[in-house]
């Protein structure tokens, strides 16, 4: 029996099974089996070769990468061409882009890699068209733009989300606050610090049994679902922020535009008329969590022309010093910072472990 048929059989059985205390264990097992078969379907065979494939394997450049995903002819290539100056062939028919087209845009002094991925189609996660390669590249991105046609945004949005979900990509989510620690004996011990309303203990045991984990300490610190538990056990999920670019707003009314703003994480734009793209760039910067730090040589004015750009989580004074030269941190006596991270408007003397914030000004004083 093919993997696709096994998946269909499990989905049919789940649809027939009524959820109650007597079926919790069985349903937990079915969900775990379903996830395993889907993983098998998406993992390339040894004969088929690994990796994204010719034209899809792109070297990472810049401080971060943004992948453009969408159905054919929604305006991805036009938007990228104008943002980066990179030519990505455009036309008013489907599947113009046949390989990943990389480009670079400079945002607030930071080089950002932009990847124009081929038009995705329904069934991508099952290997239809070039969908598998498209999604494989998107897993490596720091941010995903899902470009949608404003005339049919919600339907297309749902289809693309399901395709990405099926490939282990979780959009605008954080990893579940769960730990599963295997042990030699003692069975399954479950501890939760919050009430669990979406999962039963029997389902937890069923999932772990399907993954051949008979003994483990499970610590749950948020109200999780069975799917979230499977994500943690599988361990191969990626959690990527996403912005929905609702393109072609020049074709709709102001009243319709107001409705679009109610879609979470969305930015209505027109790539052809260049409407509202500034807002898109601002939100992109925020979601990439980049931090600009301006230098101020001792006794001189700050240099606002060439910021040092760092990533959130790696934006201490020490990271700043290493970004300039690896020897500077060893020679540093102290630093003075002005801006959001400073306690005083006239500046604050800080050490290597001080965490910097966007648009801070920093002066390094060496021994």
UniProtKB/TrEMBL annotation:
Residues 289-366 form the TGS domain. One of its GO terms (biological process) is positive regulation of cellular response to amino acid starvation. Gene3D superfamilies: 3.10.20.30, 6.10.140.1070. The keyword Nucleotide-binding applies. The keyword Glycosyltransferase does not apply. Residues 64-289 form the OBG-type G domain. One of its GO terms (molecular function) is GTPase activity. Keywords: GTP-binding, Nucleotide-binding. It comes from the Eukaryota. PROSITE patterns: G_OBG, GTP1_OBG, TGS. This is Ribosome-interacting GTPase 1. It comes from Wallemia ichthyophaga (strain EXF-994 / CBS 113033). The lineage of its organism: Eukaryota, Fungi, Dikarya, Basidiomycota, Wallemiomycotina.
């Amino acid at each position: 029996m093919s993997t696709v048929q096994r998946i269909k059989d499990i989905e049919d059985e789940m649809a027939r099974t009524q959820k109650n205390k007597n079926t919790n264990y069985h349903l937990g097992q079915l969900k775990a089996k379903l996830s395993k078969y889907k993983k098998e379907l998406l993992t390339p065979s040894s004969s088929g070769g690994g990796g994204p494939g010719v034209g899809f394997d792109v070297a990472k450049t810049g401080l971060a990468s943004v992948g453009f995903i969408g159905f054919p002819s929604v305006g991805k290539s036009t938007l990228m061409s104008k943002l980066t100056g990179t030519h990505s062939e455009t036309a008013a028919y489907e599947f113009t882009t046949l390989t990943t087209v990389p480009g670079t845009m400079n945002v607030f002094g930071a080089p950002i890699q932009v990847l124009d991925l081929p038009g995705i189609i329904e069934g991508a996660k099952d290997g239809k068209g070039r969908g598998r390669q498209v999604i494989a590249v998107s897993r490596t991105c720091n941010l995903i733009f899902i470009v949608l046609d404003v005339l049919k945004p919600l339907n297309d949005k749902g289809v693309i989300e399901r395709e990405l979900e099926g490939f282990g990509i979780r959009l605008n989510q954080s990893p579940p606050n769960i730990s599963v620690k295997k042990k030699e004996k003692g069975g399954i011990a479950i501890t939760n610090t919050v009430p669990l309303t979406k999962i039963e203990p029997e389902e937890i045991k069923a999932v772990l049994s399907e993954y051949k984990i008979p003994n483990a300490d499970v610590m749950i610190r948020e109200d999780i679902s069975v799917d979230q538990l499977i994500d943690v056990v599988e361990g191969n999920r990626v959690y990527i922020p996403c912005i929905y670019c609702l393109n072609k707003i020049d074709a709709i009314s102001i009243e319709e535009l107001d409705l679009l703003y109610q879609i979470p994480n969305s930015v209505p734009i027109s790539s052809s008329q260049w409407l509202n793209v500034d807002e898109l760039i601002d939100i992109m910067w925020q979601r990439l969590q980049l931090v600009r730090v301006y230098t101020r040589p001792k006794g001189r004015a700050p240099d606002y022309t060439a910021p040092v750009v760092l990533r959130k989580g790696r934006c201490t004074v020490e990271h700043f010093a290493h970004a300039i030269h690896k020897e500077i941190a060893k020679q540093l006596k102290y630093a003075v910072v002005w801006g959001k991270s400073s306690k005083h408007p006239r500046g604050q003397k800080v050490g290597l472990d001080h965490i910097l914030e966007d648009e801070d000004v920093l002066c390094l004083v060496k021994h």
